[in-house]
Amino acid sequence: MAPSLSSPESTVSKNTDRRHETSEFLDEDGQLQNLEDEVVQEVLKTGTDLRQYSRQIEKELKQVENKSIQDYIKESENIASLHNQISSCDNILERMESMLLSFQSDLGSISSEILSLQRKSVSMSQQLSNRQGIRVQLSQFIDDMAVSEALIMGILESPVTDKEFQTQLTSLNHKINFVKEQSFKDARCCLDVKDILEKLKIKAVTKIRAHLLEQIYKFRKPMTNYQVPQNALLKFKFFFEFLLSNERSCAQEVCNEYVDTMSKIYYSYFKSYSSRLSKLQFEEAATKDDLMGIEETGPRGLFYKASLKHKSTVFTIGSRGDVLTTHLESPIIVPHAAQKNDGRYPYEALFRSEKYALLDNACREYLFLTEFFMVCGAPALDLFNQIMGKTLNLLSKNLETFVQDCYDTIALFLCLHLILRYQMMCHKRAVPALDHYWDSLQSLIWPRFEYVFRLNIQSIKDCDPTKFSKEMGPHYITRRYAEFSAAIVGISESFPNEQVNRLLADLQEEVEYFIYKMAAIFPQRKEQLIFLINNYDMILGVLMERTRDNSKEADKFRECLNARSAEYVEEILSPHFGGIIQFVKEGEAMVEKGKADELKKHEKKMLSLIQSFNGNWKNALDELNHEVLSSFPNLVTGSSLLQLALTQLVQYYHRFHKLLTPTARPQLTNIHHIMVELKKYKTNF
């Protein structure tokens, strides 16, 4: 139905009200009021009648209002249609609002359902995770607790050496330990498997015990290489671990049986080996009559050797030092093979062979004990001593027997250094088990070594120089000292020892004193110097050859040799050129005191000395050459001394030439002639 239309009067009234409302609105705004004021002012300016103007304006407004009403009436259908459309839209919007409110309510309900589902999902996920965790643990628990048919058959039926038995034994050991652990937690399921596990354990222990004892008994067979059954035992070292964990009395029985067996084997082997080695030693050993200062009864000479067979080895090391170097880890001596070749050895070679065999066996045994019996530290050492103690005591007593009557200082010293090297070798192999044994051997040897060393020092101190022949060559006691000192110093280089250095210093002091006493038996100073130089040179030569150049002993004797050589040169130059030497010393003393002018007063003496020198210097050189080379058996030493003497002569010539007056100086033989002659005495040594 179309909307009803209002009357024109009502419409005009409404328009009037609207104008008033508009006027009020414009008054409030202030802008329209200002405009009307301007219109009024314009009207006043033109002089127009305001009533007339007002009626005109109202007429115009009336016309506009009527026109507006006509327009409104003309558009009434459209306005009615617009009203209907607006009402229809309002209804549609109302339904949409209702629908949206319903959707909002539904969405709220869905959101709460989603939150509920999310909480349920989280809860179910946690439950699943917990159940999976429990499943893994429970499955592992059941696997650890259950005794399978394969386990039972493997322990009961499989041979001990079979891989299946070892695999099932490992599983059994794990289950036994697991059941023990769960028993403390009062797990009731342990009661279901405890009996069967106990029976399987007893069966496994019985089979393992029989097998291990059988392997140990194989050691007892004659001519058995015990390393083979040892290696076989190491393949089954878990067997002993199983016994130790589950039946300690049985494990102790196996351990005791092994200790008893190996103790007897080692004792028997080393007792036999040591006895057979002793038969290979040189028959003639050093005695108390083989000390350094003991006089030789036979004819003596520079290269004389004692009548006692192998006595040279008492003071000379020779190739004996090879036991510390090239032969240190050489194969041990095989007695029956050596006897076939009629081989004989010094004691230190036999000692090396015995101790190297001991070291090799002891290291292998200690490492076997730590691996198979699972011991370390003090328990390992205790177990090792139970096996090797008897053998070590036997070898210590054998060494003690030898040491009591030993006078071979070099042999004792070589044995000491063998001990030091083998002890270091043990440490490299991580085997401390022999440390006490090595220390005990040193405690046996050191006192005897020092005692015999002191005997040698005392023997030199007790020497009577008058009982020896007056020979200016190197004395045999000095040669003994040189060889002996070089041997001790050479051996000590790797392991210096303060006690040995003190002994060497005491011996050196005694030998120096002995050389001085021997030199004193010669009446002439030149003979004394020749004796001293020959002995110092021989000692220094041996020390330089066998030891480092910077050893204390070499430095000391080099100093002594240089001092005596300088004195000897002065001694042999004096008979031929003594006048010139004396004049040079006196003249230089006068120059130092500022009395150089007084030298002119001695011009006559200068001319006399020049005349004597010019006539005799060539013959003097020949005599010097013959005298020096005949006095020293060592041609190198003799040649060096001759060159030293000629050099000293040239220095005296220059000093003498410098002191001469201008008148006397031209009469002295030209130095170039002298140097040409001196070149004839230069040797190639």
From TrEMBL:
Residues 71-243 form the Vps52 coiled-coil domain. The keyword NAD does not apply. Its main location: Golgi. This is Vacuolar protein sorting-associated protein 52 homolog. It is found in: Golgi apparatus, trans-Golgi network. Signal peptide: none annotated. GO terms for biological process: endocytic recycling; Golgi to vacuole transport; lysosomal transport; protein transport; retrograde transport, endosome to Golgi. Residues 260-569 form the Vps52 C-terminal domain. It holds the Pfam family Vps52_C. GO terms for cellular component: cytosol; GARP complex. InterPro entries: Vps52 (IPR007258), Vps52_C (IPR048361), Vps52_CC (IPR048319). The keyword Protein transport applies. Residues 1-28 are annotated as: Disordered. One of its GO terms (molecular function) is syntaxin binding. Residues 1-14 have a biased composition (Polar residues). Belongs to the VPS52 family. Keywords: Golgi apparatus, Protein transport, Transport.
